[in-house]
Design a protein that fits this description.
Helices cover 14% and strands 30% of the residues. With 318 residues, it is of the alpha+beta class. Helix 3 packs antiparallel against helix 4.
Length: 318
């Protein structure tokens, strides 16, 4: 997908779907499945893991997340598999938050089964982690306007949980809502019956998504992907809620020296995340090797506040 296509996709992420879409989803089974896998019992897998750097997220609280018509740069252009926006966790100046990473599934068409597998998988970007382990998410359907997720009953035992328990629930909520393309509530069940809690969070009633500025990073990179190979130039896109819409960026070499820098501009910054794009970044003349692309929120406090939100990607210049 070209830069304009990626930016346009980002720009409409907050648009509510037509009412007919919800009717079509109602009662449709999106790949319910039982997976005979080893159950990993325990609390939040990554609650105690220290994660550094920034990460990706973009799910507008005022609407659904239309999916890309074709693979973004973050995915192999030759892939015929469906592309998903999977939410993972990473560290920010104000604590752990969620970030989005584009991943390719196993199927050509989007399924909740694929999305659950990717939520349990290790993120491509080493700055991210997931709270869910293999075998903990057993299946999902959409029924009567609710996304129903079947979980391992070991997760429902009293006493589980941790400081990021609520964020773990939101990681799944944001991801499955993105697949469905609608902000439907999520009901956690086992064998068809609602479970009272998951990771210590009350789940007897359907769970809704929390406001994105409360749970998502305030800056994110949608493209390029981690370790993308670059020849001559590249461009970057993402979302941010940055002061006056100003989104600074830098390209650093292996020694940490800034070799390119600039500013992207989003068309807003209040209320939710807005798309930003750099345009072409010329890397001709730079030595081949690994570089770090770094994007930040603007810091109007002059360093007196918690500091800017940051997201990074490693790129490889040929």
């Amino acid at each position: 997908m070209d830069d304009l296509g990626t930016l346009m996709r980002e720009a409409v992420d907050h648009v509510d779907p037509m009412p007919r879409q919800r009717e079509l989803w109602d009662g449709v089974n999106l790949a319910t499945r039982r997976r005979s896998r080893n159950r990993l019992v325990g609390g939040l897998v990554a609650a105690a893991v220290l994660v550094t750097g920034g990460a990706v997220a973009a799910h507008q609280s005022s609407g659904s997340e239309p999916q890309p018509a074709g693979p973004p740069h973050a995915i192999d252009r030759g892939s015929s598999r469906a592309v998903y926006g999977i939410y993972y966790a990473g560290q920010t100046p104000t604590g752990t938050r969620l970030y989005r990473e584009f991943r390719a599934g196993q199927e050509k068409e989007k399924t909740l089964a694929d999305a659950l597998d990717l939520v349990e998988a290790t993120p491509t970007d080493p700055d991210y982690v997931t709270y869910w382990s293999d075998g903990q998410l057993l299946g999902a359907t959409v029924t009567n306007g609710v996304i129903v997720v079947d979980v391992d009953p070991a997760l429902t035992r009293p006493g589980l949980g941790g400081p990021d328990a609520e964020l773990a629930i939101q990681q799944l909520v944001y991801t499955v809502q993105g697949v469905v393309g609608d902000r439907l509530p999520v009901q956690f069940v086992h064998d068809g019956s609602p479970v009272p809690e998951v990771f210590g969070v009350r789940t007897r009633k359907p769970v809704t998504d929390l406001p994105e500025l409360d749970v998502l990073s305030l800056v994110s990179i949608s493209d390029p992907s981690e370790r993308r190979v670059v020849d001559g130039y590249f461009s970057a896109q993402g979302k941010a809620s940055s002061f006056e819409g100003n989104v600074p960026w830098q390209l650093l070499d292996a020694n940490g020296s800034v070799v390119r820098s600039g500013h992207a501009q989003s068309y807003g910054y209040e209320g939710h995340l807005y798309p930003w794009a750099t345009g072409h970044i010329d890397v001709t003349g730079l030595a081949p090797g690994d570089y770090t692309f770094k994007v930040m929120t603007d810091d109007p406090s002059g360093g007196e506040g918690p500091g800017p939100y940051v997201d990074t990607r490693t790129i490889i210049i040929k």
